[in-house]
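Bench notes, afternoon.
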Amino acid sequence: MLLSPTDQDVIEAAEALGEALADAQEETISSEFDSILTQCTDAISQRTGIDYESACGVSESC
């Protein structure tokens, strides 16, 4: 499947966010990481208009 430049940009941004979250998870205590993850989830929902938390709960993996 060929992706448009926009699709590729979204995938690259998602991969970068995933890597940053993995690093943050290793470097923070659980409650701090949960707060960071909640902020990311809220930002994704606001930006995309999709209720991301209902699709991928904070305590679950997507």
